[in-house]
Amino acid sequence: MFERIKKDFAGWFVVVAGFLLLLEIFVLHPGLIFSFLISIGLMYYGKRGLKGKTGNLMFWAGLLVLLISVLNMFTVKFLLFSLLFYWFVQFIQNKNNKEVIKPIIKEKKEGDGEDIIIKKEPMFRNRLFHRNETPDHVYEWKDINIQTGASDTIIDLSYTVLPQGETVISIRNLVGNVKIYIPYDLEVSINHSVLLGSASIFDEVNEGNAFNLNVIRSSAAYDQAETRVKIITSFLVGNLEVKRI
After folding, report:
1. Are strands 178-182 and 153-156 parallel, antiparallel or unpaired?
2. How far is CA 3 from each of CA 7, 22, 121, rounded to the nearest angstrom?
3. Are residues 199 and 137 in contact, defined by beta-carbon separation less than 8 angstroms?
4. What is the pTM of this model?
5. Do residues 58 and 44 lie in contact, with contact meaning Cβ atoms separated by under 8 Å?
6. d(Cα 62, Cα 35) in Å, to the nearest integer?
7. Closest CA to 199 of 154, 245, 233, 171
8. Are 20 and 74 within 8 A, CB to CB?
9. Hey, where are the domains in the chain?
């Protein structure tokens, strides 16, 4: 029953939220377009056009106007209520069904062309509010692909052995910071985007308080390395730090 609710909820959530967003912006409150343009213009001009206290004041004034406009939207309130309802359903399900996930191996019969299926527990799960951190002791590596709300993530690759080939770390945050520690002998590729935040990658000068930042960096020998790590991060607000240890 709960699985069906989750599937129906996800589908209707996207459809109804998209419809309400378009309806509110273009029909019910078209003035929101003007408000968004003004606030974005203030932020951009305050960040790029003016320097010192005047520029900072204009930037934060634009950000405040944008946040107020967004939070006053009915669609945003609907999204928050829907997420709260989804969290409540998840909580009830987890409380009633405490499932222990174990590897499930399907035996291959003679003449059966199907592959063996192995089910594993992910290293991190999607959480709205949660701190993710790898253990401070030796652990088994599993590729990371998570979406979080307000969350910090710390990943230390010095306590694990990576398989040959390309290892993937994919993190999407609304608000939060990510720190990734990379051994010196490991080649790495980084693709980072953030609306408001900073990026500090190895010895590169930190780009702080950047607006609409996109950073792509790669080790010189990345394409030729037998073992390599691809890092893909996307934040609304947050900082990325990648260090060698």
Report:
1. parallel
2. 6, 29, 19
3. no
4. 0.55
5. no
6. 10
7. 233
8. yes
9. 2-95, 127-244
